[in-house]
Amino acid sequence: MSGLYLRMIFTFNNKTGSFKIGLYAAIVAFFTYTLIFGFRKSFTVCTFDGISFWGLGYKTLLVLSQMVGYLMAKFYGIKFIAELKRFDRYKIIFLLVGIAWLAWLLFALVPAPYNIVFLLINGFPLGMLWGVVFSYIEGRKSTDFIGAALAVSFIFSSGFVKSVGGWLMVHFKVSEFWIPFTTGLVFALPLLVLVFLMEQIPPPTQGDIDLRMNRSPMSAAERGAFIKNFLPGIIAIVVIYMFATIFRDIRDNFSADMWKEMGFLNKPALFSASETPITLIILVLIGSMVLIKNNFTALMISHVLILMGFVIAGLSTYLFRENHLSPMLWMILVGIGLYMVYIPFNAVYFERLIASFKYSGNVGFLIYVADSFGYIGSVGVLLSKEIFKVQLNWVSFFSNSVMVLSIAGFFITLFASRYFYKKFKTI
Q1: pLDDT (tens digit, 9 = 90+) per residue, 349-363?
Q2: Cβ distance 33 to 150 under 8 Å?
Q3: pLDDT tens sequence across 315-339
Q4: Is 177 helix (H, G, I), strand (E, B) or coil?
Q5: Which of 20, 48, 58, 347 has a Cα-to-Cα distance from 363 of 20 to 30 A?
């Protein structure tokens, strides 16, 4: 009876305003992915000091293993997400999260280094979930705002999940090996409720379809034709996204190590304190794109935001290195900059690209193309640091990466914007 009552409350009909649907979808998508993140990143709050195998730090091996799982998922997801049907998606979510959570249990039970493989097993199913969740919200007039809310969830959740993990470790003395599974235990029941609520989001209206094109599964031939038609532009944006992914992942996976190097130890609240303002600022910036009805104008403005992101990330890092910024202010500003580059691709850029050039397809396919190469970059950079024994602490390594990639990314973004502008004028 209570289940029927909830369904009556959260089921929408044709008379429900698009604003209410958009706001509802944004809130539900935000919290759903925040909870999913709880099954992925809580282990990064742990430093695993003094543990190493085969000449590599244990935590680095864990991060690499999970990244490889994510990398495999992104390449497989190009096909899986592109061909995803729009029914029984909740079953897919529960199955993938369940596998990831089971991997954390085995990680805690199996001794190191044999438990490293379970990070790969954890990363593969979780790597599919962004595309599944995004399929609930794409192709709508309000997708920019909903997508921004969904995308900023992993900014907020990155800090929130680490804070929860740190809280369990500091106040309940949970060992570093049990932190990930225990965090999942905290998030499991709320996730069940949020997925039920996400299932109540109605499909796009005819008005949505007229403005943003129909979103449907794409065959291999359709995917190939799309890539061929926009190949130079896609190569450019994939490289940009790769840069953003590299320093986002370094910051995300090793922020605990960086805070420690900067003199902040056993302060779980730092993670939320630094990520919450970033979340709010990015949500306003990207979410306001919903006010721009012209799809091509929004696509061009996305390039401007990305350019500004590279400038903010690079300039704030330079000022920090010159001792003109405090560690907290630098972590916030560099976070704002890198997410101004990263978030548009996960919320606005591909959505408006498809709509601008009037393609019938889905955003998930393009996101997973970019993501697959993004994780190649992250894995490559991390491996290079370890294999070539680059003697830098994480703060130095991260700041050096940001400085170099920001300069390169700025000019590649200029090329991409010019390419798509000229391409659009030939239609």
Answers
A1: 998 999 899 887 788
A2: yes
A3: 999 999 999 999 999 999 999 999 9
A4: coil
A5: 20
- CA 389 to chain centroid, in Å, comes to 29
Torsion over CA: 192, 197, 200, 202 (sign): negative
Quote the pLDDT of residue 6.
Answer: 43
Alpha-carbon gap, residue 266 to 268, rounded angstroms: 6
- Which residues, other chains included, contact 18 with Cβ-Cβ below 8 Å and sequence gap of 6+? 140, 141, 142, 205, 207, 208
- Residue 344: asked if its preceding bond is cis (omega within 30°), the reply is no
Torsion, Cα 161 162 166 172, to 10 degrees, reads 20
Q: 186: which 2 tokens?
A: 């905290």
Number of domains in the chain: 1
Least confident segment among 15-29, 82-96, 225-239: 15-29
10 in a structural domain = no
CATH number (domain holding residue 266): 1.20.1250.20
Over 90: is that where the pLDDT of 276 sits? no
Return the percent helix, strand and coil in the chain, to nearest 5. Answer: 80, 0, 20
345 domain-assigned: yes
Residue 54 lies in a domain: yes
Residue pair 24/142 in contact (Cβ under 8 Å)? The answer is no
